[in-house]
Amino acid sequence: MSSIDRATVWPYDETGRPGEFVYQRYGHPTGAAAEAALGELEGGEAVLFGSGTAAVTACVFALAEPGTTLAIAEGAYFGTSVAFSEFAQWGLRVTEFDQTRRPPEGVDIVWVESPANPLLTVPNWDTVRAHRGLRVCDATASTPVYLRALDEGADVVVHSATKFLTGYHDAMLGAAVTRDEEIAARLRQVRTRLGLSASPDSAAALLKGLKTLDLRMERHTASARELAARLDRHPAVEVVRYPGFGGLISFDVSGDPLPVETATRVIANQTSLGGVVSSMESRYRWEGDRIPAGLLRLSVGLEDVDVLWADLEQALANA
Questions:
Q1: Strand partners for 135
Q2: Do the domains 214-316 and 29-211 match in fold?
Q3: How far apart are alpha carbons 239 and 262 in whole angstroms?
């Protein structure tokens, strides 16, 4: 897209009738183009939101009601569970389950994450498909390059497009994609009514990021595979988790991980993931006892793999 339309309103036609775009909160040209591009990759209708958490929030409003029971994968992104907790007073009941096994019976919504962030388990899709409830998959770390969750049986796939889809840590953006016309319409209705819309600039960042997504994910994966293998052989590393694809690794060191994460010089010590610049942080500070105290989450960027290893090796000397 050559230009970004940042208008917040568009005039009616000469007869006073609204056109395709009326008010930016309802939709805008750049957003529509980005939704079409992502929808084509996922094989469904994409709806953009102002953040990944906004997409999660919209899914709760669109799919649940007071008394709904939702089962979320253990070790899934903690921010999703935090968002769900805000709905407890409105009657949403949430339970966790091991997504490598069968989801619990009697729940209305099964929420999986592939891979779960930061424990990096992947769903047992045979059992997910067999479940009678609605099925939602957060595929942020897989991207459509490694998982088309709608093809695997998900009713809705969710992305924090802030991460790998845009790829440059320069846009806050979320998305939900579905093949169900009623769900898509409800997601758009919720977005408009609650003001969860994405900005034109963020939508443009998605259009830019999708152009290089295949190449970036291939490089992320090649480097992450090599680093995971080297970490697995390092004496200071106790556990390595890597699902075999994508740019996300987590590993445990004994004791306090702070001296390791603050010692890197190439790898940025910062939160979030999915950028072209590698980043690493300990997650216990945010998530507490739900994860090991020594867990470090490494998002592998596009730097030379030997440069990244040298940085990790000297940092691990502090473990």
A1: 110
A2: no
A3: 20
Contacts 24+ apart (CB under 8 A), 181-186: 181/45, 183/62, 183/63, 183/155, 183/156, 184/45, 184/47, 186/62, 186/63
160, 167 Cβ separation under 8 angstroms: no
* Cβ–Cβ < 8 Å for 296, 251: yes
**What integer pLDDT is reported at residue 282 of this predicted model?**
97
261 in Cβ contact with 312 (< 8 Å): no
pLDDT tens column, 192-202: 999 999 999 99
**What's the full length of the chain, in residues?**
319
pLDDT per residue over 91-130, tens digit each?
Answer: 999 999 999 999 999 999 999 999 999 999 999 999 999 9
- How much is the pTM? 0.95
Q: Could you say which architecture CATH assigns to the domain 29-211?
A: 3-Layer(aba) Sandwich (3.40)
User: Can you give the residue ranges of every domain in the chain?
Assistant: 29-211, 214-316
CATH topology of domain 214-316: Aspartate Aminotransferase, domain 1 (3.90.1150)
